[in-house]
Request: fold
Amino acid sequence: MDSPEITIYIDSTVENVEGNQEGSMKGYNPNKHCNKCYNVLMSFCSELKYFVTGFQRSGNTYASNGTAEIIKPATWSQERRKLTQK
Reply:
């Protein structure tokens, strides 16, 4: 039996911070220019309307950094499911 296909959406968003929070840096921040921020990377499963995983990065991180690492848990889970169904 084939496993159903799922769609994983990956999104990067900016979280503003005040003061000197650990790991925050000046980066792309459309809401408050020149403010320190975090760049948060999140993944969602479209079919299940489910938050898969996410992690917080420094504000000067490029938007696509870490995308391979964030989908590993989801792809591992799908592969494991295929092995147990055989």
Observations:
- The chain is about 20% helix and 35% strand.
- The chain has a mean pLDDT of 79.
- Strands lie at 8-16, 25-26, 36-45, 50-58.
- The chain has one domain: 8-85.
